[in-house]
Amino acid sequence: MRNLKKLTAILLVSAMCIGTAFTSFAAEGTVADGTSENENPGTEGTTPTPAPGQDEEDVSPVTVLGNAVDKDGNEIPTTVTDITDQKVIETLTSEEALKDILGSKYQVGSKDKVTLLAAGEINIVGDMPEGGVNITMAIVDGDIKPGNTVYVLHQKADGTWEIFEAVVDAAGNITVHFDSLSPVAVVKVMSDGTVKVLKDKPATSEKKSPKTGA
Question: Is this model's pTM higher than 0.90 or not?
Answer without folding.
Answer: no
